[in-house]
Amino acid sequence: MGNVFANLFKGLFGKKEMRILMVGLDAAGKTTILYKLKLGEIVTTIPTIGFNVETVEYKNISFTVWDVGGQDKIRPLWRHYFQNTQGLIFVVDSNDRERIGEAREELMRM
To answer: Is 86 a catalytic residue?
Structure first.
């Protein structure tokens, strides 16, 4: 009986885990956003080849954020990261006006 209450308490008040997929065109700022969330500061980044994975804690939620590279050769691989994902962040560099249409097309392709 005590085990039932422990599981109920954990379900109501325990830490929740969520897997988040973050994608967008290359140089959109995905890795910068990830490390701002994780470390609270802006860090110097290099283009992501493959992916970065970091855990970000917020209140009682543990977010595992998958930051997947945005180069055109990597984009077809985005779909392989969807399994068991609870959220998607699509990052757009609104200052890069010439690529807004390309970003829209990639989002629609997903």
So the answer is: no
**How far from chain centre, in Å, is Cα 12?**
25
**pLDDT level of residue 72 (50, 70, 90 thresholds):** very high
Task: Please compute the mean of the pLDDT values over residues 65-94 and round it to a whole number.
Answer: 97
3-state class of 108 per DSSP?
helix
Instruction: Please tell me the distance from the alpha carbon of residue 19 to that of residue 65, in angstroms, as a whole number.
Output: 6
Catalytic entry in 8, 10, 42, 71: 71
- pLDDT score for 78: 97
Residue 31 annotated as lining a ligand binding site: yes
Q: What is the pLDDT of residue 103?
A: 98
Q: Is 1 within a domain?
A: no
Check whether 48 is labelled as a binding-site residue.
yes
Number of domains within the chain = 1
